[in-house]
């Protein structure tokens, strides 16, 4: 069984980015600048955003965090977005999701300048992705693609089952993997909460990507021998540790790893890759902003 090590792969990618940034700054250019907006106090979101800030600094980026109260209005948030859109020193920014229920995610995403949308969530960027044009790929699907490539996992002609149709992971990934591109050319099935007989589908799948957000949803009896499982689920479960929770994936790692050809762990799988690819998108935004 091959452990697909997202933590190590993400560190490799960060090294590549860091070396590129070094050359740029040694030549007198300013550093790339990534900003994150975090609304509220959700401990998991806080941890992810802090990770993004830490990793940004590690590769030599300027990083800033705008932390806002849960009570901020949609209009106030839109104002902050407007100022980031105008701020020439900010190359890219993200608005960490989920947002409080009184704020409309889509309205916020639509307000982001597509050239600074390093999450790749703006409809213009999603449209470019579907058309196969160069754009910012959403970081989690991009990270999954990168793991597949760096671990030489064959996708051409394979049956790929993606479980979960979220805007952040399942939907874009289903498009990317069916396209004529590296880590593409697969026969993709996109399953979701209304799918019937999931087990029939999962037993036929050569590659299964879970992105539904249900702890230990995918069980060993649902997969065939030699399957590749990529687990994009990050579920926090309350426990007695100091931080009060621990992370588990959507797949039953212990049991499935006995049958799988390759599998990603949680933590240490897709999560770190999401951040590495966000940095890659930011470097891309920066280069475009300079030129
Ligand atoms: N706007 N919102 C926006 N963009 C995103 O790309 C995200 N996502 C998802 C949630 N909301 C978002 C993230 O950043 C999920 N996500 C994310 C990013 C990083 C990690 C997990 C989720 C991560 O670093 N995971 C580590 C463990 C971290 C820990 O121990 O707390 C891992 O090894 O999986």
Question: What does this entry look like structurally?
Answer:
The chain is an alpha/beta fold and 291 residues long. It folds into two domains: 28-113, Rossmann fold; 139-271, 3-Layer(aba) Sandwich (Rossmann fold). It has ten helices and eleven strands. The chain has helices at 6-26, 43-58, 74-86, 105-111, 123-131, 139-150, 170-178, 198-204, 253-256, 270-290, and strands at residues 2-3, 33-39, 62-68, 92-95, 159-163, 187-191, 207-210, 228-231, 235-238, 245-248, 262-263. The strands form three sheets. Strands 1-11-8-7-5-6 form a six-stranded parallel β-sheet, with helices on both faces. It has a three-stranded parallel β-sheet with strand order 3-2-4, covered by helices on one side. The protein has a two-stranded antiparallel sheet with strand order 9-10. Helix 1 packs parallel to helix 10 and helix 6 packs across helix 7. The protein is globular and about 50 Å long. Ligand L34 binds next to helix 2, strand 4, helix 6 and helix 10.
Main features:
Rossmann fold, globular, three-stranded parallel beta sheet, 291 residues, alpha/beta, binds ligand L34, six-stranded parallel beta sheet
Beta percentage is 15-25%
CATH level 3 topology of the largest domain: Rossmann fold
Mind telling me the CATH superfamily name of the largest domain? NAD(P)-binding Rossmann-like Domain
Structural class computed from helices and strand pairing:
alpha/beta
Rg from alpha-carbon coordinates? 19 Å
Residues in helices, as a percent range:
40-55%
Write down the CATH class of the largest domain: Alpha Beta
Distance between the termini: 45 Å
Number of domains: 2
3D shape: globular
The biggest sheet amounts to:
6 strands, parallel
Bound molecules: ligand L34
Model regions low in confidence, pLDDT < 50 over at least 5 residues: none
Number of H/I helices: 10
User: How many beta strands in the DSSP annotation?
Assistant: 11
CATH architecture of the largest domain: 3-Layer(aba) Sandwich
């Amino acid at each position: 069984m091959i452990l697909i090590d997202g933590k190590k792969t993400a560190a490799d990618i960060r090294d590549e980015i860091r070396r590129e940034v070094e050359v740029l700054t040694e030549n007198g250019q300013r550093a790339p600048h990534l900003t994150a907006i975090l609304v509220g106090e959700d401990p998991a979101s806080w941890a992810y955003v802090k990770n993004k800030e830490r990793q940004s600094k590690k590769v030599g980026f300027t990083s800033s965090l705008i932390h806002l109260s849960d009570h901020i209005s949609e209009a106030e948030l839109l104002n902050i977005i407007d100022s980031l859109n105008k701020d020439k020193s900010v190359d890219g920014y993200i608005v960490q999701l989920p947002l409080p229920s009184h704020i409309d995610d889509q309205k916020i995403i639509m307000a982001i300048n597509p050239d600074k949308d390093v999450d790749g969530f703006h409809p213009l960027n999603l449209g470019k992705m579907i058309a196969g044009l160069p754009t910012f790929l959403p970081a989690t699907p991009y990270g999954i693609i990168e793991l597949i490539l760096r671990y030489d996992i064959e996708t051409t002609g394979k049956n790929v089952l993606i479980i979960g149709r979220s805007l952040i992971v399942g939907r874009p990934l289903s498009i990317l993997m069916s396209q004529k591109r590296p880590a593409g050319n697969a026969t993709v099935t996109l399953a979701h909460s209304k799918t019937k007989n999931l087990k029939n589908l999962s037993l036929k799948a050569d590659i299964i990507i879970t992105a539904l957000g249900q702890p230990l949803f995918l069980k060993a009896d649902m997969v065939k021998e030699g399957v590749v499982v990529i687990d994009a689920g990050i579920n926090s479960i309350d426990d007695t540790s100091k931080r009060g929770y621990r992370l588990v994936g959507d797949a039953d790692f212990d049991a499935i790893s006995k049958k799988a050809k390759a599998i990603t762990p949680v933590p240490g799988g897709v999560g770190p890759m999401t951040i590495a690819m966000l940095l890659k998108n930011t470097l891309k935004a920066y280069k475009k902003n300079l030129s």
